[in-house]
Amino acid sequence: MGTADNASRQLKASAESVGVNCTNTLTNGSKYRALVYDDKGKLVVQKVYTVGKNIPDDGEDLQLNGGSTYKFIVYSYNTSEVPAAVNATDATTNVSGNKDLLYFTKNITVSGGATNDLDIVFKHKYSKVNISINSNDIGPISKIQASFTPHYVSNRINLLTGAIEYDKTAVNLPIDNLSGDYVTIRY
Fold first, then answer.
1. Checking DSSP bridges between strand 147-151 and strand 171-174, what pairing results, if any?
2. Is 0.85 topped by the overall pTM?
3. Of the candidates 88, 85, 37, which has an alpha carbon nearest to the alpha carbon of residue 58?
4. CB–CB of 78/121 below 8 Å?
5. What is the C-alpha R_g of the chain?
6. 11 phi and psi angles, rounded to 5 deg
7. Average pLDDT of the residues in 9-23
8. What is the Cα–Cα distance from 53 to 43, expressed in whole angstroms?
9. Alpha carbons 121 and 23: distance in angstroms, whole number
10. CB atoms < 10 A from the CB of 134, how many?
11. Which of 32, 52, 73, 177 has the least C-beta neighbours within 10 A?
12. Displacement of CA 103 from its chain's centroid (Å)
């Protein structure tokens, strides 16, 4: 056995599994991406998960060093669409203002030989607007024209901080589905 084989075994022996299970009420089959940064801010690994499964989509458990502190960032669109990946040097990614962007972050020190749960509780980064019109007093309605403005579509999120950089050009968002649309209301 060569030196590289021994180093690889030592790393595996010191690594601990971390469970990244989402317990929110997301739809089964929804995808979410987990990013793991070390205590120096370096991206260690990113994995995609599917709600309803107990392992990452690539089938390989997340392996981290016991006793080390990591920053976990998890984000989802609450659909089967895989959230965009990030590269090692840029923690920002494009995100449409027309999606239900869910975000979570937590710093934890991984315990060796123990279960390490993240207890993910997503926060909505955009507002969801539900419109309900009661026409009981006036009778049937044949046509409704409405829109939200300003609405920002082409946004970026800094995943390390959760800060959104909104598109510079606002548009009108027509309301043609009264069951609810996602709008990027700046507050």
1. antiparallel
2. no
3. 85
4. no
5. 21
6. -65, -45
7. 39
8. 24
9. 8
10. 6
11. 177
12. 5
What digits encode the pLDDT tens for the residues 117-172?
888 888 888 877 766 777 778 877 777 777 778 888 899 999 999 999 998 998 88
Q: What is residue 6's three-state secondary structure?
A: helix
Question: Token digits for 80?
Answer: 């089967």
Q: Nearest-5° angle of CA 120, CA 126, CA 131? A: 115
How many CA atoms are closer than 13 Å to the CA of 57, on its beta-carbon side? 16
C-alpha of 68 from chain center:
23
Residue 18 has pLDDT above 70, yes or no: no
Q: Are 34 and 108 in contact (CB under 8 A)?
A: no
Name which of 119, 113, 117 is nearest 16 in CA terms.
Answer: 113
Beta strands in 121-170 (DSSP E): 123-124, 127-129, 147-151, 154-158, 163-165
CA distances from residue 74 to 5, 52, 119, 184 in whole angstroms, order as listed: 33, 16, 11, 20
Within 13 A of 77's CA, how many CA atoms are on the CB side? Answer: 14
Closest C-alpha to 118, from 127, 129, 107, 131: 107
- Residue 106 pLDDT > 90, yes or no? yes
Q: In this predicted model, which residue has the larger pLDDT, 144 or 110? A: 110
The total of other beta-carbon atoms located within 10 Å of residue 80's CB is: 12
Burial of 160 (0-12, 13-18, 19+ CB in 10 A): middle
